[in-house]
Structures are given as structure tokens and as C-alpha cells.
Amino acid sequence: MNAIMQNKHIFKDKVVLDVGCGTGILSMFAAKAGAKHVIGVDMSTIIFKAREIVKVNGLEDKITLIQGKMEEIEMPYPKVDIIISEWMGYFLLYESMLDTVLYARDRYLNKDGLIFPDKATIFVAGIEDGDYKEEKIGFWDNVYGFDYTPLKETALSEPLVDTVEMKAVVTDPTPVLTLDLYKVQPSDLAFSCPFDLTARRDDFIHALVAWFDIEFTACHKPIRFSTGPHTKYTHWKQTVFYLKDVLTVQQGEKVECSLHNRPNEKNRRDLDIKIQYRLDTQDPNRQAEGTCLYKMC
Amino acid sequence: MAEAYPCSDSESVSSSDNDQDWLNKPGEEDEDEEQEQVTVVSFFDDKGFSDAKSMLAYCKDKFDFDFLGVRDRLHLDFHGCVKLINFIRRGVKEGTALPQEITAEHLADDSLLIPVLADDALIFCLDELPERTSGQAQEKGQAAEVQNSASGGGPVVDELLQKNAQLQAELEQLAKQFTNYRLAVEQTLDKRWGVDDEGEACKTAAPVAPAEQQKKKEEEKDESAYYFESYAHTDIHETMIKDTVRTNAYRDFIYANKHLFEGKVVLDIGCGTGILSMFCARAGAARVLAVDNSAILDKARENVFRNGLDRVITCVRGRIEDVTLPVDKVDVIVSEWMGYCLLYEAMLPSVFFARDKYLKPDGLLVPSHASMWIAPVSDAEYVAENVDWWRDVYGFDMRAMQAGIYTDARMTVMPTDAVCGEAHAFRMLDLHTAKVADLVFEDSWQTTLSDKVEGLDGFLVWFDCFFGESREEAVEANLTAKEWVAAGRERVAFTTGPYDTATHWRQGLYLIDKEKAKDIEVGPGKKLVGNIRYAIPEDHARGLNITIAWALEGGDSQVQTWLLH
């Protein structure tokens, strides 16, 4: 909202495309910011509600709402000056509309057009999360006296979207993916990234947590927000990947990791994620190495 | 075991560390699912057919081989047919001539159950072939024959008999596994073709236009498939098991009443992860049949195995209406069938079906009774946060988003003090005797408003559940779970209402549309009367339409309908 309302000079008299407009709130911000015209596109029937809302707010002359797939609709303008979109999903990429935004960029955005937001970064850190891991994963070891370990495997493979407290974070955060919306291609969303996590203190690592930051660099004064554990709650929360092992780390030690992500073959909005980790120490009792596969679906 | 167990749920991740899985090329793993057309390959050449009947007709015509004739002559059951198919396929593959007359001996070898052609469509299509007489008589006949010929002998015969018994047990095991396999195959095919018990539907559907009929069926099918699919994931089962009000009630009842389960045959309908079946097995049940039509059954089977209860519990995948159970009657039916507002998701008719078909006349249903409650609600804060909020969203009027608020039931846990009048039990179901027709009804209710009433914002609906120890045990209609438990020794019952620990069922909140409804002057001590109707929406067989009428005693009645979907 701030990115739009504080940058009226950028929006003034521009043609704006809102990809996945939902209830139309971003379109209305853009219209209020002085846009010449806003086109809101959404596949969902929510568009009918959006139309009603735009009308009761007296903006129906400024905003055209179109139901359909970005790839199939007919646009009233051949090119637009600005694309706005709230396309981010959990773990940035899960169920994300990024593919659609990129399609709209390639087809409709003017050569020197702007994208709001235009930069996204995924961060990863190690966390101590013994109690909750016990509740979510260990639970299946003994269910009312029964061995339920078959469901434990499934539980381990499903990343958990939840809030993580800052004090649970054991390592320095490390970026694993940075997207420049002007340049990124759909194929870049399958990526592999090796990275190290450096322990800030002596502690256990039960899981890795991932979150993302979003930037609007086109703004007069760049605006950014984070969905990390260190900042205000967002509906994206954070994404927790439980490891099979519990790592015991000492301050300053590095855990060598790698993260591989690719959209699922059958449903590009689902993600297949692989995390490898290795703790190499002199202490043979703390040596650990493993590979975990996850599926966000 | 993890590798061997059939993972039909293609969505789930292989949790093995196998990097091969990870590296699979695009499309490699979903070939099966993508393939919509089925080809039945001829026995004697490479010709393919779209269904089994025309293939068999072709073989009869061209090669003078009458599959159905052989089947009927030998009284082959499903497994017999599979063996016959594989016997022929194997012969053709190895180039050996078929015997002049195929006899039962030719098909004795169990290895013939292994398909010769991978994914042999003919085996999948066996059920489409014209009916014949029951194969069970034949099996019994064979067994008797062996008994007879053996009855004259000494120790050798004993040994043979022993061996025979052992083999029979193995065969039974195999047959069981095959039943499951067959069900899985049937479901896959049903999914692929969107066809379900076609014959039966056609018989009753004469007046309806065929296209419309087909469409309706597909919709039903879709809804049903979606329903069972929704139970395939772990989190829903985690939610249910961790609902301790629910799970403890079943556990406490089963463990405190072992005499009701010892040596008994128990049927668990919609077994999920198998927890209730395992309670019953631990309580001493002789045999538990755990039935579920969701992919979670694979996990149940594994759970049962890991807990060493696989000799007692048999997991069967399928709809209870369709599966073939290995017993005629059961002593106990245990099921956790309750949905939101008790009847949402419409699983109870399946329990009634099973009760009428399988439960012995003196058999027990667990739980035995369920009652439904309604109470008036007054909660200005809730209305402000959930309804009025849309009036000003970042400075915009978004009232359009409110629409569903007054037409859909909202499942929520309401604070006790939101209830502004005494609760009224509008219906008690004795599950031993209730019928499907009892699930669509209109009942009256009344309440006296309390001093909590500020205005009337809506109504709250919930249910209580009772675990009687015998069919004869009655539960008085207006007794709460708590009162009933207090009135007897070691009784088990629970409530999903606002006066006790919240459950995953929450409560159903029905908000009054104040723009349409007339304001009535409520106040402490005033009497509110009305009706509540449960009906099934035409286009959503597992949903509910709930209509509530209300009025101050002696005043004008108002009415509103909500959908639970």
C-alpha cells in the first residue's frame, strides 16, 4: 500500500495492470494514486465481488476488471506502464502466481515499464525447535500407545507453515535465492543453492526456517518488507523444514547445506524441495550428514 | 516394507532417500495416470480392443476359444478368471499349445495370479463381463472333496491335512490381498472413466434424459471423489487424533468395556489411520475389519502391521456399500462418522447401510446415540470483527465481501458467554434404530433468554455424542452429555458445545441478516420459539441446508436458510 500511495508521482497518468487482483484493493490504491487506468485481472469469481466493490467506491471509470487467465484474455491496452501484483505464496514460490506475472511482463509491459514489487529474496536459518518438533513429529512415535511412524515420515516431508520466534534462530540467516523481476525466467524457479549456516551460539538445530523479503526498488525511497521471524507477523508466516537428525552445534561452527527447489512436474504450483546438510566437526559424536525431501502441496 | 507397500496416492512424496526418485524426468512418473484409453489385448494376436467383451468375442470367432464358456464350465471366481487369463497368456508367450480342454488342475498353481502382461486391461475389466453363478459354492465343494478323499488315512493324511490347512490359510491371505488389489483397480478405473455401477443407475433412471443423468452422476462422482481425497492427507488425521475429547471418548469406552469386544468381530467404518480398530484389537476383539475409501488406508495398514495387530485387523479399501467383507455379520460397529453440526458430510447413511447389512440383531453400535442442540447467540464483538469490518478496509467500502456471512454456516468456537439463552435439544438419534429418512427433518425448539442478551445475532448449533453399553440403554432426549455421564457409573459421552473443551467440530454459527430480518425486542426472561430444519441441498449431496425460524412467543415468525458446504 505504501509503495503505491507514497509514489503517486510514479503512478500519475500511467496505465497499470494488476495481476491476480482479488478483491481489487491494489487496483483501487493505484487508481487513487492517480493512474490513468487500471486493469485488474483474476481467474477467480472473486472478480464479481471486486466489481461491486470498485463500483461502490466510485472507481468504475478508472478500473477495468477482467475475469480469465492472463494468457487468454483480451487486454484493452496493448502495453502497460506498470505491473502491480501480490503474487507471493508461502515460501515465496508455493502456489505463487509468478509465472503469470512473468508472462504479463513479457507480453504487456513497456520497455521501460515498472514492476511492483521487483525484487524478492529467500533466506534460510537454522532453528532450535525441540518442543514443537516433538509435538508435530515425535507425536507419531506413540499415539495412544500405538506406533504411528508411517505417518511420521509423511509429517517430516511436509514443510510446516508457522511462526518461528526470533529467539529460536540459532544461525546467521543466509540468502538462497534472489529474484530480479525484470530479468527472471520461469526456468529460474528450479534452482540449487549451496550455502553455509554459521552458529551464533552453542545450541541444537532441529530444523531450517525459510522466509522471504520483498522490495519495491522503483519507489522514490525504496520500500521493503520482510516475512522473517525478526519482524511483524504476516499471513505468510515462515516455512519450517524439519531435519531427520538433531544437529548439535557450537558457536562459530558452519553447517554446510544445499537447497534444491523445483516446481512439481504435475502441478507447477506445488514444490519439490531437497535439503542436504553436513556438520563436519572433530567430535565424532556430533558429526552429522543427511538429505531430506519435502513436498509442498 | 516401505518400498513394497502400494502408494496409490501419487501426490505423496516418497520418503526414502532414493535420489533416483528425485531425478525422474518430466512425465516419467505420470504416464499411467495420463493414459485415459484402455486397450484389451487379444489372447492370440496383437489386436487391441476397447473393452473385454469385444476382445473375447473376437477370440471366440477367430480362434474358436470361448473364455466365458471355460469360465462357466469350471465355475471360476474372480481369482480363477485371473488365473485362466494368465494361463492362456503364459502359454501363448511361451509358445506352448493350449490343452484340448482346460481343467481345474491347469489353474491350480498360485503363480498364475501374477499377471503375464503388465497392467493387463482384461484383468481390470473382468467385472464388466456377464454375470454367472456364485463361485463360493465351488470353492466349498473343492474343500469338501479334499476332506473326503483324505478321511480314510493315517498319519500321512494328518500331515497332508495339516499342510492343506496351512496352504488354505496362505490362500486366504492371498485372496484378501487380492480383494484389496481388485478394489484399488476398480477405483482407478472408475476414476478414469467416471463410471459407477452403470447397470443399476440405468434401470432406475428411465424418465431422466440420459445426458442429464450422466452429468449428474459425474457431479456426484466428483464430489464423492473429492470427499474421499480430502481424507488422504496427514494433517486432517493429526487434527482428529489430537482432538482428545473425541479420541479419549472412544478409547475410554472401548478400554472400559472390554467385555463388549473380547472375542467379537468388529467393523470400523471410515477407519482413517486405524486408531479405533487398534483400540478394539487391544480390547480383545477376535477380528476387526477396518474399512476406508481414502488413500490413508495404506497408512492404516502399515500402522496396524507395525503394532503387531495385522492378524486381528483386516484393512479393506472401498466404500462400505461396495466392499466384500470376509464375514456375513459383525458383533460391533464402531465408527467416527460425525460431521459439522452432526450431519454434514453425510456419512451416517453409510453407517446405517452397514448396520442393516452386517450388524447382528443383538449387535452394538459405538457410539449409540447423538443429540443436536440449538441456542441463541448475542455477541456484538464477533459481529464487529467479522461482519462490520468489511465496511471500511483501508478506506474502501468492501461490503460486497460480506455476502456469504448470512447464507453460509460459519464453523467457529464461540465463547460460553456468547450464548444468551438456555440450549434446547431438538433431536435425539438412537443410532440402532434411526433411519436415513430421520436425517431430514423439521423440529421445534424454544428457549428463555438470559441476562447475557443484548441483541439477537444468530444461533449456535452443536451435538452431543453418547456411548451406550447395550442396545437397550436409552438416553433421555434433553440430557446433556455431562448429565448423562454423571447419572451412571463409568459412562462415556462428550459434547461439542460451547460449555466444555472445544473440539475440531467447533460449533455451527448461523448469523441473522439484520438488513432483512425485523428487529425484535429481546430481553432477559423473554421466551423465544422456533423451528429448525435439516435438508440436503440438491446440488451437494454431502452438504446441508439448515433453515431456522424464530419468534418471540406470540410474535411474528421470521425465517432464514443457511448452507453448510
Automatic annotation (TrEMBL), chain A:
Keyword check for Transferase: yes
Keyword terms, alphabetized: Methyltransferase, S-adenosyl-L-methionine, Transferase
GO MF term list: histone methyltransferase activity; protein-arginine omega-N asymmetric methyltransferase activity
Annotated GO CC locations: nucleus
Record domain Protein arginine N-methyltransferase: where: 118-281
Gene3D superfamilies: Hnrnp arginine n-methyltransferase1, Vaccinia Virus protein VP39
This enzyme's EC code(s): 2.1.1.319
InterPro entries documented for this protein: Arg_MeTrfase, Methyltransf_25, PRMT_dom, SAM-dependent_MTases_sf
Segments forming domain Methyltransferase: 16-113
Any one GO BP annotation for this protein: methylation
Catalysed reactions, as listed in the record: L-arginyl-[protein] + S-adenosyl-L-methionine = N(omega)-methyl-L-arginyl-[protein] + S-adenosyl-L-homocysteine + H(+)
UniProt-recorded name of the protein: type I protein arginine methyltransferase
Species, as recorded: Parathielavia appendiculata
Automatic annotation (TrEMBL), chain B:
Region (Disordered): 1-36
Record's keyword annotation contains Flavoprotein: no
Top-level enzyme category: transferase
Low complexity bias (residue ranges): 8-17
Keywords: Coiled coil, Methyltransferase, Nucleus, Phosphoprotein, S-adenosyl-L-methionine, Transferase
Domain Protein arginine N-methyltransferase: 369-553
EC number assigned by the record: 2.1.1.319
Compartments (UniProt record): Nucleus
Coiled-coil portions: 157-184
Any Gene Ontology CC annotation: nucleus
Descriptive protein name: type I protein arginine methyltransferase
